[in-house]
C-alpha cells in the first residue's frame, strides 16, 4: 500500500490523506493548479512535505535508500528531459540501473519494455530524431524496464495518438491485474471514469473527493470543482461527459 497521511506542502497541498492499493489503477484529477503533479511527486518521494508523511507498505519513504525506492517506484514526470541524445534502447536500459541483475536479465527486461510500447522499429534511433509521441513512449518504456511495484506517471497519455493511448491503457491495466500499483495524473475525466478503479479529486491543493469513479466523479463534484453543469451518458466502461 502507498499511503499519504496529512500531506502538506505550502501553497500546493493541504493535509491530503489517501490510501492507494497495489493491483489497482488510480487517477488523480483536478483543474490546473490543483496540486496533481505535486502530489504525484510527493508519492514518489521527490517532494518532502512540511507536515505529514508518505509510507510504502507501512515504511516511511524517507527511510528507504534511494536505490531501493527506485526499484519499487517508477516515476514519470510530465516533461521528461534527457540530457544526452541516446538511442531508444540505451534510454530504456537506464531503467535497469537500480537492479543488480545479470546482463541477460537486463536485456530481456529492456526487450519487453520496448515491445510493450511498440518501439521495436525505433529501438536504435536517437531520441533527437523522434516525434514528441515517440519520445513519450520511450520515456515510459524506461519506467517499465525497471519492473517497479508502483508506476507513477504524470499525464502519460497527453502526447500520444488515440491508438497508442488505448494500447497504453491496456498495458497499464494488465500490469495492475498482475499486482502493480498504477497512479496516473490525467485531465480527461471520461478516461478516469472508464479506466480507473479509484479516483482522487484535488482542487487548490485540497482533497475534494476520492473513491470509485462513479462516486468521486459524480455530477455534483464535477460541478463543484470544474464549475461545469454536465452529465454522464452511456453505460459503465463507456461513459462520456456531456456539457
From TrEMBL:
UniProt GO MF annotations: ATP binding
Protein name per Swiss-Prot or TrEMBL: ABC transporter ATP-binding protein
InterPro entries, A to Z: AAA+_ATPase (IPR003593), ABC_transporter-like_ATP-bd (IPR003439), ABC_transporter-like_CS (IPR017871), P-loop_NTPase (IPR027417)
Top-rank taxon: Bacteria
Domain ABC transporter span(s) in chain numbering: 2-229
Pfam family, one: ABC_tran
Species of origin: Novosphingobium jiangmenense
Keywords on record: ATP-binding, Nucleotide-binding, Translocase, Transport
Summary of the function given for this chain in its UniProt record: Part of the ABC transporter complex HmuTUV involved in hemin import. Responsible for energy coupling to the transport system.
PANTHER family, per the entry: HEMIN IMPORT ATP-BINDING PROTEIN HMUV (PTHR42794:SF1)
Amino acid at each position: 500500500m502507498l499511503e499519504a497521511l496529512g500531506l502538506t506542502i505550502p501553497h500546493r497541498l493541504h493535509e491530503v490523506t489517501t490510501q492507494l492499493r497495489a493491483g489497482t489503477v488510480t487517477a488523480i484529477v483536478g483543474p490546473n493548479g490543483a496540486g496533481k503533479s505535486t502530489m504525484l511527486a510527493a508519492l514518489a518521494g521527490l517532494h518532502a512535505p512540511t507536515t505529514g508523511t508518505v509510507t510504502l507498505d507501512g515504511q516511511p519513504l524517507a527511510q528507504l535508500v534511494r536505490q531501493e525506492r527506485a526499484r519499487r517506484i517508477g516515476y514519470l514526470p510530465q516533461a521528461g528531459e534527457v540530457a544526452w541524445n541516446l538511442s531508444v534502447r540505451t534510454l530504456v536500459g537506464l531503467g535497469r540501473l537500480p537492479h543488480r541483475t545479470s546482463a541477460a536479465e537486463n536485456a530481456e527486461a529492456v526487450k519487453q519494455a520496448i515491445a510493450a510500447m511498440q518501439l521495436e522499429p525505433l529501438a536504435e534511433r536517437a531520441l533527437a530524431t523522434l516525434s514528441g509521441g515517440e519520445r513519450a513512449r520511450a520515456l515510459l518504456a524506461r519506467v517499465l524496464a525497471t519492473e517497479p511495484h508502483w508506476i507513477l506517471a504524470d499525464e502519460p497519455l497527453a502526447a500520444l495518438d488515440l491508438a497508442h493511448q488505448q494500447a497504453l491503457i491496456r498495458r497499464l491495466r494488465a500490469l495492475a491485474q498482475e499486482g502493480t500499483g498504477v497512479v496516473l495524473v490525467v485531465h480527461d475525466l471520461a478516461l478516469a471514469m472508464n479506466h480507473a478503479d479509484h479516483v482522487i479529486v484535488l482542487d487548490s491543493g485540497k482533497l475534494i473527493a476520492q473513491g470509485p469513479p462513479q462516486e468521486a466523479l459524480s455530477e455534483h463534484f464535477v460541478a463543484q470543482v470544474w464549475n461545469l453543469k454536465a452529465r454522464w451518458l452511456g453505460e459503465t466502461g463507456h461513459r462520456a461527459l456531456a456539457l
